[in-house]
Amino acid sequence: MAETSSAAPSTPALLPVFARLDLAFERGEGAWLISDKGEHYLDFGSGIAVNALGHAHPHLVEALKAQAEKLWHTSNLYQMPEGERLARRLTEHSFADTVFFTNSGAEALECAIKMARKYHAASGHPERYRIITFEGAFHGRTLATLAAGGQQKYLEGFGPKVDGFDQVPFADHDAIERAITPETAAILIEPIQGEGGVRVVPTQCLRGLRELCDRHGLLLIFDEVQCGVGRSGKLFAYERSGIAPDIMALAKGIGGGFPMGACLATTEAGKGMTAGSHGTTFGGNPLAMAVGNAVLDVILAPGFLDHVEKVALLFKQRLAEIKDRHPRIIAEIRGEGLLIGLKMAVPNTAMTGALLQEKMLSVGAGDNVVRLLPPLIIDDALVGDAVRRIDQACSRIEADMGLPQKKADAR
Ligand SMILES: *Cc1c(COP(=O)(O)O)cnc(C)c1O
User: Fold this and answer.
1) Measuring CA to CA, how many Å separate 207 from each of 166, 239, 241, 273, 397?
2) What's the CATH number for 27-56+303-401?
3) CB of 103 closer than 6 A to ligand 1?
4) pLDDT level of residue 350 (50, 70, 90 thresholds)
5) What is the CATH number of domain 59-299?
6) What one-character DSSP code corresponds to residue 104?
7) Is there an atom of ligand 1 within 6 Å of 251 CB?
8) Over the stretch 88-99, which tens digit does the pLDDT of each residue have?
9) Residues 320/321/324/325 CA torsion (nearest 10 deg)
10) What is the DSSP letter of 127?
């Protein structure tokens, strides 16, 4: 069939489930994306917290190229040396003893949910299968992870919600305690809610959850798909709390842009997951494992996470100044490390739109928040560049609202 004109077809070849911007990118370099029109955009969205090391990082490109010339796929019927190496490194740097690799965040959560249920079945309590989750949570788009997230707008029209999830208000300790029944298997929480609006769960609350789980024989599951792998300034966000989960889901940043995820667990939590109890065709594939190891090479290098914490602190200080200059636009700065949320005093879409006009990418979130998720490799100069664009974007919105203008900051 002949190529037709560029006019939008009436039957789109791509399922129209995304409201895409009229913007396409051709290549990327570090924190920059270059459009098909040759325009440079400062990428503070990182493909929704995925491109942890920016675009075309030389070490990642090299690892993928080298692996591509050797072997792409063999299946989990055989040994996977690179996968074993990556699993060993993840366990050495976390609470976990064992790892299951997946292709996405939702699949990592599916593994976590199945593992928690199986743990209790293997302990002689198959009736304990229910999992407590939190309002504002996001755990993915499969049927079970949608039920876990509990967002009505995503569940609508897809038949009966998968059973086994009990949702409680965010950070309400008493409500959690009341929700625990003899059927409860686990508590599932994002230590920092991403999609929900960069809501940081207070350390005290995470400790309280650990204590509740221990007292009631429940497993504690952390969803670090968005906040994990250096994004919070620590390798894992739970490290700030001084407690650890029994099971943890990772994805997004762990592949630096290559689709992969992982479910980490203690030996005890994983005791029900014996040969044949779970599986995947693509998970742990050699290409993904090569890139995953390369991502860790960079993030675990001495000083890298210190750099993330330092540059994040500077960014937050500068953002606080911007908020003071534009109190009618920005209401609050939230987050940990380079998982930053601007709680807006105007609709968040006004801000993402104004930033786009300043050629800067950001991502909207719940609770009227704009997420800033720069690659972890940004330096002080890029923070300065971003802050200038955010300042301009605020002025742009003020002008649209007919508010008096502040003179641009000279720095
Ligand atoms: C993105 C995300 C998921 C889902 O990951 P997918 O790779 O899209 O399946 C799950 N949990 C959290 C916290 C996320 O941010």
Assistant:
1) 20, 11, 7, 27, 41
2) 3.90.1150.10
3) no
4) very high
5) 3.40.640.10
6) S
7) yes
8) 999 999 999 999
9) -140
10) T
Report CA(365)–ligand 1 centroid distance (Å).
13
Q: Is 138 in the pocket of ligand 1 (CB under 6 A)?
A: yes
Instruction: Output the pTM of the full model.
Output: 0.96
Q: What value does the mean pLDDT take over residues 50-66? A: 98
User: In a 3-state reduction of DSSP, which class is residue 157?
Assistant: coil
Question: Between 286-299 and 304-325, two packed helices, what is the crossing angle to 10 degrees?
Answer: 70
Look at residues 213, 223, 147 and name the one whose alpha carbon lies nearest to residue 186: 213
CA of 142 relative to ligand 1 center, distance in Å: 10
Choice from 101, 145, 252 to test ligand 1 binding pocket (greatest atom count within 8 A of CB):
252
**Mutation test of ligand 1: which of 154, 225, 260 has the most ligand atoms closer than 8 Å to its C-beta?**
225
Domains 27-56+303-401 and 59-299 share a fold: no
Ligand 1 mean position, distance from CA 14 (Å)? 21
Q: How far apart are CA 186 and CA 382, in angstroms?
A: 42
Which residue ranges make up each domain of the chain?
A: 27-56+303-401, 59-299
